[in-house]
């Protein structure tokens, strides 16, 4: 029989073990980044709403798609580490797989399961349209993680995953994507281009020295902000909606500006890594800036996700 004192020690040890395991898997899926996925979906839904499709009558579809998007993102980050395990043994030995806290086989199984779950949830939420986009998104994730990473095609593929995530949100409305205004159709492309540039910068994160990639990311930031202004003008946004969008765009510039300045001045791992992290989380603000066209509530619904993302980034790595 275990005495009271010994029993307490055992229970405490078990709790520490559970916390350590949860922390390991939170690290594996990049838990701060997971909160950047639903804002993509909210932006897509806001684009449909701004076009007058009345997407606000089916809020549960948006919730379902946001959950699906989160599963897809978690599956992508998990498979990323599974594929990168041999390289990480030298460059990032503290990650869950090379450190021995998670087996590579387990990571492959978990990542695949999360992608499948994301597809199923999207299909349940919006039927064939959501399932089709989620399937394309899952395929793009696998292509990037498994084969295209580190190449120009890989940067574009990663950008495409984010663009498709925005498109996933548009399936919350009972309209065809092609029926949306041209300006709305360009928004996923802007998001895709921004993330492609950030991915290119991230490719030199562990070695540094690629000032050109940082400059390209800065160009993508500036181009995205200009696109926000142009989108609100072309969409005929009201004064309040335009002001809200521009406010979020300024916040986006402020959020990514300082780390990008540091990275372009001295492109080393110590500066490029934080710049990449800031740009990944900053996408939430960019999404909110575009989403304001559908109304202030859409912008706030997207932007609020930066709060948990930022809080968790103090504990877990973003990149």
UniProtKB/TrEMBL annotation:
It comes from the Archaea. It holds the Pfam family UbiA. GO terms for cellular component: plasma membrane. It is a multi-pass membrane protein. The keyword Transferase applies. It is found in: Cell membrane. The chain crosses the membrane at residues 107-125, 160-178, 184-202, 214-233, 239-257, 296-313. InterPro entries: Prenyltransferase_related (IPR050475), UbiA_prenyltransferase (IPR000537), UbiA_sf (IPR044878). The keyword Transmembrane applies. This is 4-hydroxybenzoate polyprenyltransferase. One of its GO terms (molecular function) is transferase activity, transferring alkyl or aryl (other than methyl) groups. Gene3D superfamilies: UbiA prenyltransferase. The lineage of its organism: Archaea, Methanobacteriati, Methanobacteriota, Stenosarchaea group, Halobacteria. It comes from Natronorubrum daqingense. Keywords: Membrane, Transferase, Transmembrane, Transmembrane helix.
């Amino acid at each position: 029989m275990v005495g009271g004192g010994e029993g307490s020690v055992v229970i405490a040890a078990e709790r520490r073990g559970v916390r350590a395991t949860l922390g390991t898997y939170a690290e594996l899926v990049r838990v701060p980044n997971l909160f950047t996925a639903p804002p993509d979906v909210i932006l897509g839904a806001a684009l449909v709403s701004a076009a007058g499709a009345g997407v606000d009558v089916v809020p549960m579809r948006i919730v379902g798609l946001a959950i699906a998007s989160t599963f897809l993102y978690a599956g992508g980050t998990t498979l990323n580490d599974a594929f990168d395990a041999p390289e990480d043994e030298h460059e990032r030995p503290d990650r869950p797989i090379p450190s021995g806290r998670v087996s590579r086989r387990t990571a492959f199984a978990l990542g695949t399961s999360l992608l499948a779950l994301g597809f199923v949830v999207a299909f349940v939420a919006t039927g064939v349209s959501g399932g089709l986009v989620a399937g394309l998104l899952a395929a793009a994730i696998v292509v990037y993680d498994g084969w295209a990473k580190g190449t120009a095609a890989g940067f574009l593929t990663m950008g495409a995953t984010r663009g498709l995530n925005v498109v996933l949100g548009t399936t919350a409305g009972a309209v065809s994507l092609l029926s949306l205004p041209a300006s709305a159709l360009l928004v996923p492309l802007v998001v895709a281009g921004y993330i492609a540039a950030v991915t290119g910068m991230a490719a030199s994160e562990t070695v540094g020295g690629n000032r050109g990639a940082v400059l390209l990311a800065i160009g993508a930031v500036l181009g995205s902000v200009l696109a926000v202004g142009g989108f609100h003008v072309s969409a005929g946004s009201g004064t309040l909606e335009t002001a809200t969008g521009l406010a979020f765009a300024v916040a986006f510039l402020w959020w990514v500006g300082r780390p990008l300045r540091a990275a372009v001045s001295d492109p080393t791992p110590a500066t490029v890594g934080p710049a990449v992290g800031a740009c990944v989380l900053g996408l939430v603000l960019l999404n909110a800036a575009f989403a304001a066209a559908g109304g202030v509530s859409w912008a706030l619904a997207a932007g609020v996700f930066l709060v948990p993302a930022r809080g968790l980034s103090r504990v877990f790595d973003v990149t």
